[in-house]
Description:
Radius of gyration of chain A: 19 Å
Largest sheet of chain A: 5 strands, parallel
Domain Guanylate kinase-like (chains A, B): 14-192
Shape of chain A: globular
Strand order of the largest sheet of chain A: 2-7-1-8-9
Oligomer: homodimer
Function (chains A, B): Essential for recycling GMP and indirectly, cGMP.
Number of helices of chain A: 8
Protein name (chains A, B): Guanylate kinase
Distance between the termini of chain A: 19 Å
Low-confidence stretches of chain A: 1-8
EC number (chains A, B): 2.7.4.8
Strand content of chain A: 15-25%
CATH superfamily of the domain at 16-44 and 104-210 in chain A: P-loop containing nucleotide triphosphate hydrolases
Binding site for ATP (chains A, B): 21-28
CATH topology of the domain at 16-44 and 104-210 in chain A: Rossmann fold
Largest interface: A-B, 45 and 45 residues
Mean pLDDT of chain A: 89
Amino acid sequence: MTNNNGWTQKSDKGILIVLSGPSGVGKGTVCSALRQCTSDLVYSVSATTRSPRAGEQEGVNYFFKSKEQFLSMIERDELLEWAEYVGNYYGTPREFVRSTLDAGKDIILEIEVQGALKVKQKFPEGVFIFLLPPSLDELEQRIVTRGTDSMDAIRSRMNAAREEIALLEHYDYAIVNDRVELACQRIQAILEAEHCKKERYLPVLQKWLEEVH
Amino acid sequence: MTNNNGWTQKSDKGILIVLSGPSGVGKGTVCSALRQCTSDLVYSVSATTRSPRAGEQEGVNYFFKSKEQFLSMIERDELLEWAEYVGNYYGTPREFVRSTLDAGKDIILEIEVQGALKVKQKFPEGVFIFLLPPSLDELEQRIVTRGTDSMDAIRSRMNAAREEIALLEHYDYAIVNDRVELACQRIQAILEAEHCKKERYLPVLQKWLEEVH
């Protein structure tokens, strides 16, 4: 909304998209492709206690924190979710998300299924998208093709995937990752549609209808 | 969903889109443009008691009914909405909408604001889109440019438009008709996003997860 007298189809406030799905479904690939074709989408930057690797920049790749700083962020409820992984903490700073949205920009967060549900508790106004494999067979094939897992590990990953897929009910949208470019198109369509939701227009409309004419 | 083992991104059942908005906003123009660029969208065919004009075909332009037939359709609740206009009845046959959706096709109904709200009562699972002018000034300009109305009539049309715009709250989406091709793109995005709603995938998913693997 750039003037009092009309609308543009983009509202003042951005939208948080949370992209999730089972391990192996291709979240990272879809997210990278989306980054290339959607220039005005901001990617959520995580906070972490792990050390920066060569070339990693503060505020671009991660917000690097000491363990004390991280624990104090948890304490002050400054993280939308957090988890410990191989001795390090990782989390999503609320403030970065909030200030991006307030600046009218959309932001995307790519995260595993449990983390997404934690975000939903703290930020229910987000748009939660679940990435599905074309079929369970296809998902198994993708995990096998990676070649990093033993047969037992594959079976256990597949069981985890089934449990995760059952959590789809907590999400808003389901997107099939049959082809990366189609998955991207669907996410872009969802973003465009969400910007057209009537809720975004009611406050402006109210002001507009009250104006003397 | 064409096989038991996977998804396509289009569900078995079509979606009813109801496109509405104040008089003068350009519903007809947007609908015609949409018809040209979306080949697989079916347009709702109305029933009417008025006589066919030259070239009009039964089941294509209208379903032509006698007054007795029309009144009996009302009686049997076979119309999603109906209205009388200049001595003739017009209405939306429920059966045509239902059979199109059951065949997996999307259907669009272009209708004025009060009619759309009646449809919503009988068919709440539809997707209700409200077409907005870029501004009230712009709407007034469009009505003036048509040149068919006196100053009094214009004032009364504008008051009606204000009252109609206030009904936006009963709709799902608001689309600004700043440029016809942009309005079309937004409607197509909404249609694509609605097909990705998780509700459409839960039943298939359930069946799929119960399969022995």
